[in-house]
Amino acid sequence: MPQLPDIESLRLLVLVGERGSLTAAAAELEISQPSASKRLSSLERRLGLKLLERSRRGSTLTPAGTLVCGWAQRILDEVGALLDGVSALRQEQAANLRVAASMTIAEYLLPAWIGDLRRSAPELHVGLQVLNSARVCELARQGVIDIGFVESPRELTGLRSRLIGRDRLVLVVAPGHRWARRRRPVGPAELASTPVISREAGSGTRETAERAVAAAGATMAPPLLELGSSTAIRNAVAAGVGPALISEVAVAAELAAGSLVEVPTEGLDLGRSLRAVWSASTRASGPAAGLLARARRRGGDRGR
């Protein structure tokens, strides 16, 4: 049975295939050409195959070498994935505070809360994951995170939670949209029949919009476009793609500047609660309690 090849020899072989010569591959790895040739000769002996055609014009892969090169690339890809995963695990284990937050909170509110916390504890390392509200709640139930922040209107079963503030969705369009100058509010039926730019299923923003329309006895049309962040939605609206329901905190600057226009609505409860969540089997303590206190103090301004 052939001996197992070493990773560096496989990497050298793949580079020969990519660069077209042993000399170029050796130069990229910053080793001498004789050293590279010796390494690949050793690999050939281990595998019992001739991998290179050597001539005065240089060294190129044999047909067998080409096949082995392809298999070697797959091994190197897997090794890279292994190293990336180990690095992620090390970072997670080193984190003193594991946090997850829904997109809107992570983009517009959480940075100030974390900054405030780290001023009092500069040695603290915060590991943050930015996910939709459903996924944040799932990680909190599993105890994977110490604390999470969501704007989901759903029942928070299996979790402890604390109100930290309030927010509302606003209907926005580009200045050139047909709704930009209307004075009559958009009602549930009209909104429900109009495809809008939306977040993905599971996001607190989308759930709030769908529940508000459902409470008024209507069902929202399929989204005009699904995007993964408030920033992407805001930019799509500004580009004239269509209307959107989005957190007012995400578009405050654009509304003030006039690059987006808020369209009045009626018969819709578009308010929502911002909540901190954590596993029902634990309590918020240590750095998690510190972050919760700052979120309640600074996030509470959103409810006034």
UniProtKB/TrEMBL annotation:
Coiled-coil intervals, chain numbering: none
Sequence ranges assigned to domain HTH lysR-type in this UniProt record: 5-62
Membrane found in the keyword field: no
UniProt cross-references to SUPFAM superfamilies, sorted A to Z: Periplasmic binding protein-like II (SSF53850), Winged helix' DNA-binding domain (SSF46785)
Keyword field: DNA-binding, Transcription, Transcription regulation
Domain of life: Bacteria
Entry-linked Gene3D superfamilies: Periplasmic binding protein-like II, Winged helix-like DNA-binding domain superfamily/Winged helix DNA-binding domain
Matches recorded under InterPro entries: LysR_HTH_N (IPR000847), LysR_subst-bd (IPR005119), WH-like_DNA-bd_sf (IPR036388), WH_DNA-bd_sf (IPR036390)
A Pfam family per the record: HTH_1
Keyword DNA-binding: yes
Family designation: Belongs to the LysR transcriptional regulatory family.
Protein's UniProt name: LysR family transcriptional regulator
Species for this entry: Pseudonocardia hispaniensis
Taxonomic placement: Bacteria, Bacillati, Actinomycetota, Actinomycetes, Pseudonocardiales
